[in-house]
Amino acid sequence: MIAESANEGNEVNIERVTFDALDGFPLGGFVHTSSSYPSPRMAIIFAAGGGVRAARYKHFLSALARHGMPSLAFDVRGIGESRPATLRGLVAGFDDWAEHDAAAAIDWMSARYPHAQLTGIGHSIGCLLIGAPANVGRLCQFVFIAPHTGYHGDYSPRVRWHLQLALCVAGPPLRHLFGYFPGSLLGMGEDVPSLAAAQMAARRVPRIVEGAGGTDPVRGKRLIHRVERLRLPALILSFADDPWATEIGVRRFLHAYRNLLVVRRAIAPADIGRAAIGHWGFFRRSAASTMWPLVLQFLKSDS
């Protein structure tokens, strides 16, 4: 267990945890807690962006813990704390990440805090994952930060061409050579299982196509329909200079989650006196006084 003390007040404990996915695959992550709140009224399950380690979000999640909301950030299989000794041969895609991994995280947090309301928070493509498990009904609300659906055409031109060159041109031979997609070699975050990378590469039409990238279309349709039927409160935060979650990308995401009860905040850097926010600016400690209060206010209004 790691103790993190900061100027904001309460000491936060960051505990490395392990648990099994619904199909038995070993997963890992981090729970952020504060001893000042032994019986929290709300607990958080946080879904990281695609190919991003859960540890990268520690400052924001520690802030939630200081306000009485313990937070579990879990790594999906193949990433970070949930990466096996070798990625070669690991069959894992977005369907597994949602149906087995995110669902197990919800179960685990439900068992640890049985009397707390559960909120799902996601970043980037993780916003799709956290809404798709069969046990999503245990969540009472969502916070989606810089959400999008992974459609290449919605990204800014610079990101779009980098992504297509890496995933669609270099990706197939690299996946064949390594047995996984070596994202770390291409400046695209973590290494990713081959199936997940193939799904990312296949997302080249606006509609989410069941079975694209070599997955089971029946399973994919089940996950999509689950997202479409959700009717829960949700805070959506997007940023005017975000090259990944562009305005059209956020709107496409909202169309997928078409029945949510949405409170949306679209923030421009000038609104908060900053030169840039982008896709990651919300999670930097410098956002503690400008953007994190928006989430805290939303969460506390229902706690």
Defining traits:
31% helix; 303 residues; alpha/beta; Rossmann fold; nine-stranded mixed β-sheet
> Would you tell me the overall average pLDDT?
94
Q: Note poorly predicted spans.
A: 1-7
Count, helices: 8
Largest sheet: 9 strands, mixed
What count of structural domains? 1
CATH architecture: 3-Layer(aba) Sandwich
Structural notes for this entry:
This protein has helices at 58-66, 94-112, 126-129, 157-178, 194-202, 217-229, 247-256, 292-300, and strands at residues 2-4, 12-20, 26-33, 42-47, 71-75, 117-123, 139-145, 233-239, 261-267. It is of the alpha/beta class and 303 residues long. The chain has one domain: Rossmann fold (3-Layer(aba) Sandwich), CATH 3.40.50.1820. Helix 4 (157-178) runs antiparallel to helix 5 (194-202). The radius of gyration is 18 Å and the shape is globular.
Can you lay out the helices and strands and say which pair or pack?
Blueprint: E1 2-4, E2 12-20, E3 26-33, E4 42-47, H1 58-66, E5 71-75, H2 94-112, E6 117-123, H3 126-129, E7 139-145, H4 157-178, H5 194-202, H6 217-229, E8 233-239, H7 247-256, E9 261-267, H8 292-300
Parallel strand pairs: 4-5, 4-6, 6-7, 7-8, 8-9
Antiparallel strand pairs: 1-2, 2-3, 3-5
Helix pairs in contact: 4-5
Question: What is this entry, summarized?
Answer:
This protein is an alpha/beta fold and 303 residues long. Helices cover 31% and strands 19% of the residues.
